[in-house]
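Suppose you are handed a protein chain with no further information: no name, no annotation, nothing but its sequence. What can you learn? This example shows the usual starting point.
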Amino acid sequence: MKKALTAGLSVAAIASVAFAANSLDSNPNYQKLKNFKPKGVSNDQCLMCHKTTDPGIVADWQHSKHAKAGVGCVECHVVPKDYPTAFKAHPMQGANWTVQIAVSSVTCAKCHAKEVQEYLNSGHARGAAQWLAGNGTKHGYLMSKLSYHYESLKGANPTYGVSGAKMEKGIRNDLPVYRANEKDPRTADLNVANICIQCHGTVIKLDKQGRPDATTWPNDGIAALYPDGGVGNCLACHSRHKFSAAEARNPASCGNCHLGPDHPMKEIFESSVHGHIYDTNEEDYKFDTGEQIPGKTLRAATCFTCHMSGINGLKATHNVSLRLKWNLWAPDSFLRTGGFETAGWTFWKGGGKVEWGKTVIRGNAKAGNPNGPEAARAEMKKVCMTCHQATFTNNYFQRVDAAVKIYNQYKAAANKMMKDLKAKGLIKSDVWSDPFFKLYYYLWHHEGRRFRHGAAMGSPDYAHWHGVFQVMQDIREMNDIYNYRMKMLKKYGSAKKVLENEPPMPVVTHE
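A reasonable first move is to predict its three-dimensional structure. Written in structure tokens, the prediction is:
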């Protein structure tokens, strides 16, 4: 029971310039950058200007471990002149070098290859691929349509290789506001840069000179996709330019993205016993060393403790999925079987433009422990047994699995109703106007996530009142709509007439 588990490294990274990467080492840009030796440039040359123009940036760097180790501007921002992210218009250039503005994890991997490789194995690495870069998938298409064409009022304009005609389908003509930016798509693109992609990441676009476009950068998304084949830029957790490990280990770092109605891990942690102990004893947590409490006696875990720390004989890791048995964010809970895969990441040479149409990126949502879901659970149990007995730990996870089973039973009932309604044409083409679809969406995207994560992380209120109680209410309301539509179909004999004559059905949104 105390036996440590080892993590494998079976990963397929995002590819660039039409190569298929199976690991960090497969990326020729990584090999190129790792072996690059710039001539005639020093950090002091950079600081001559930037300590005046960017004093805050310089101060952050000066307080970093990088500065103490002699790692500065050159090591992170100086690249070969023909590098995919090269800023060709920078006033300082050498015979064989220029600078890059948009820095990906490929640069970080020059010194931190192990950590980057572990990250590429994790669910974090598919953050952008799962939707913005994945319009070939149903989930990706729906999320792009929601953020660009509904929330950002873009109307029927194309998005990431999807035709305008396809995007137009389902957008209600009686609500012209949704076409407000039909002739101004850049406004919509800029707005999306404020919302989803700040956590998920996006495809970083550069102009011909290597300047990042405002619609995609600045971006600290967990899995932004860069022209050099890099996935993520490490800034999502290690804020620029101090790159503090202590900041990244603090729960506040995770809470930047993991909060709100659809992924309230911040609120769940804060309302758990672990969060209570942390809030009342914060001075005891030593995030700078990773020990958290002097003497290595841990009273209460944090996000870092459970998902990343080298505790109780485990290996520290940047694969935050390694200790997860279940995928609890997805519409249907499923076991994480390990591994990570992508298909098709093609760039046109120069300009950082993305080529779509032939292939799309698909992140494997089952990324986890390469030794399987039970190995992942065994690792998480070792974390728990730092403080808790085996009986306590085993009993706890039996309850977690029961919550997952009950959620899946609710979801199976919802799936059956959805399948029946779709087969009979009883779901509106504008799904965001359809009360059944909205309840179906809330059931998994809001309430279902709260129920499952509340149970897994020890927050009874989120497991109950914000979770399963609301899932139960969703199913009741969905069943009422389902029965009404089926009854009216018998009366009218036409799905179109059923939807046209349906009275308003208010949807209770459980935020």
